[in-house]
Amino acid sequence: MDAIDKAIKRTKVYYCLDCGKCTSICPIALRNPDYSPRRIVSSAIHGSHEYLLKDNLLWECLTCKMCDERCPSDVYYSEFIRDVRIEAGKIGQEGECSHGGAIQSLMRIMTQPDLKQNRLAWISEDLKVAKEGEYLYFVGCLPYFDAFFTDLNLNTISIAKSAVKILNYLGIEPVIMENERCCGHDLLWTGDIENFIRLARFNLSEIKKTGCKKLIVSCPECYTTLKIDYPKYVGDLGMDIIHISEFLAENLTDDKLKFKKSKKKVTYQDPCRLGRYSGIYEQPRDIIKAIDGLKLNEMEKNRKNAVCCGTSAWINCNSVSKQIQIDRLIEAKSTGADFLITACPKCQIHFKCAMNDRNVSKDTKIKIMDFTALVANSLE
Amino acid sequence: MTKMHNKKSKFTPTIISFVCNWSAYNILRKIEFRLPANMHYVRVMCLGRINPSFIFKAFELGVDGVLLLGCPPGECHYNFGNRIAEEHFNIANNVMHLLGVEKERLSLIQVSNKDYLILVRSMKKFINVLKRVGPNPFKIDTSEKVWTP
Ligand code: SF4
Ligand code: SF4
Fold first, then answer.
1. Ligand 2 atom 4 nearest Cα
2. C-beta atoms of A106 and B56 within 8 A
3. Burial level of A301, CB count in 10 A (0-12/13-18/19+)?
4. Interface check B116 vs A, CB under 8 A
5. Which of chain B's residues have a Cβ under 8 Å away from the Cβ of A112?
6. How many domains does one find in chain A?
7. Is A109 on the interface with B (CB under 8 A)?
8. CATH numeric code, B2-133
9. For A177, which of A41, A52, A200, A256 is 20 to 30 Å away at the CA?
10. Is the same domain home to A179 and A263?
């Protein structure tokens, strides 16, 4: 049995009924008639594996899990794609890297254990962090995004600041690792399993060294990678992994959070990794609704039907991605919201990039704010 | 890292230089491409063609230094290329600072067609600086496989 057969078995691709529901819901297939998850599934079962591995369309998938939600046969298509990409990577196949592959290079450079990063300059005096304690905050690649995407006016580091501010508000001084690396999410999903393992092993040992009991994450991709993939590939972290929205929702019931009054109208984009992958739909909404006066206008496609932001893992960003982004922004704008709230820094990057395009209509222009930053700014 | 520094006496840094066709490349042609040992060049039609990915990829693959050779302000053949090159150089510099890669490993030198001496001196200076900084410790060793399914 070769690796593809194993993947077919593990992700239950054998159970495919050939119904085509996946293709009919897929945001890529809707805009690129060449791409069809149903066809890829059936060619994996009936066709040659060599052909499958060299199929360029493998790299088009957003791994957004929309199809998995619809599949009547419970096929895990997005995981199947991930496994096939790992095999394709071994024979030198890869997706078309956005930004010339700069971000992939950064992630690979980060596998080097001797690196002494300067990643903590954002911790200003008003933010209280500790050397040891119960809580660890995993920052992710936020400092890098701001330095790299200078044309997008991002300020993603405000997400990290906001997370610490919220934790401080709740009387917690989190530990922050000087030597943290990228969680490796994007390498894992683009077939570079070797370098993913290197990053994961390094993070695992650094995280364990802190001796913390609970790990708070604000990035949905770090969240699923640390929570689901690390135990599978490199071992258990031995601590609770909590998304900041889960943590806030817990504290909401205890009446510990007091918010300022607001008059804004917002809409919420469910990031794939937080929503469909982790089932965290209601917690961010509960918090948003708890902010006095803030109105949440849902988009038509919300929760498990929420459309992905159009690109993932920094590959195959193309006209289809742009079209997905434009359509989603128009949908967000049509809710009458002043702000589009998203919990993922990459959704923010992708949407802002689409709006930055001179050829994209002004009707898509909506202010984007991160969920964690919204909460921190609304605290009394 | 320290153990690598000890070897630096015999160390000849490997350098990739990206060279603008309209200025530095003409100088290289004049010196008949007699470049210092371990210095390699990539000719580009304008240094504005370079973006941070070129630079990071070079470091990922283990070069010790990256040298960008373009035109001085106001002398770009395409008018805006050197401005873009500078922007990309700055982005790469900032990201490298976050990564903890020594800033000396990346240099942008702006020379006109006739600045033969300036170019040669800057190259020498760059090599000497790299000798002091030592070999690139960020090269990934991919020979050892870490994953078994
Ligand atoms: S939805 Fe499921 S059963 Fe239907 S074609 Fe797609 S993979 Fe097969
Ligand atoms: S994971 Fe998303 S992009 Fe990939 S095939 Fe399924 S619906 Fe399409």
1. A61
2. yes
3. middle
4. no
5. 137-140
6. 3
7. yes
8. 3.40.50
9. A256
10. no
pLDDT digits (tens, 9 = 90+) for A339-357: 999 999 999 999 999 999 9
Predicted confidence band at B9 (pLDDT cuts at 50, 70, 90)?
Answer: low
CA distance A370 to A295: 16
pLDDT by residue for chain A (380 residues), tens only, comes to 689 999 999 999 999 999 999 999 999 999 999 999 999 999 999 988 999 999 999 999 999 999 999 999 999 999 999 999 999 999 999 999 899 899 999 999 999 998 999 999 999 999 999 999 999 999 999 999 999 999 999 999 999 999 999 999 999 999 999 999 999 999 999 999 999 999 999 999 999 999 999 999 999 999 999 999 999 999 999 999 999 999 999 998 878 899 999 999 999 999 999 999 999 999 999 999 999 999 999 999 999 999 999 999 999 999 999 999 999 999 999 999 999 999 999 999 999 999 999 888 888 999 999 999 999 999 98
Asked if the structure places residue A96 within a domain, the reply is: no
Subunit contact B140:A147, Cβ cutoff 8 A? no
Same domain, A155 and A216: yes
In-domain check, residue A95: no
Query: Looking at residue B111, what is its pLDDT?
Result: 93
Tokens read off for B145: 């496989």
> Are A174 and A133 in the same domain?
yes
Percent of chain A with pLDDT over 70: 100
Mutation site for B-interface testing, chosen from A84, A85, A112, A142 by largest number of B Cβ within 10 Å: A112
Locate the domains of chain B by residue range.
Answer: 2-133
pLDDT in the model for residue A363: 83
Q: Is the pTM of this model over 0.90?
A: yes
Asked if residue A66 has its Cβ within 6 Å of ligand 2, the reply is yes
Q: How far apart are alpha carbons A54 and A230 in whole angstroms? A: 28
Residues A278 and A345 in one domain: yes
**Are residues A221 and A306 both part of a single domain?**
no
Structural domain includes residue A25? yes
What CATH number should be reported for the domain holding residue A281? 3.40.50
Which helix (H) or strand (E) segment holds residue A187: the answer is helix A185-189
- Residue B128: phi and psi, rounded to 5, are -65, -40
> A119 with A219, same domain?
yes
Let me know whether A107 and A70 are in one domain: no
A126 lies in the same domain as A233: yes
ipTM of predicted complex = 0.92
Which domain range does residue A190 map to?
101-250
Measured between beta carbons, which residues in chain B are less than 8 angstroms from residue A204? none
Measure the CA–CA gap between B87 and B78, rounded to whole angstroms. 16
| Nearest atom, ligand 2, residue A272 CA | 2
Which ligand has its closest atom nearest to the C-alpha of A78? 2
| Nearest-ligand number for the alpha carbon of A21 | 1
Of B57, B91, B139, the CB nearest to A148: B91
Task: Tell which A residues from 39 to 68 touch B, by Cβ distance under 8 Å.
Answer: none
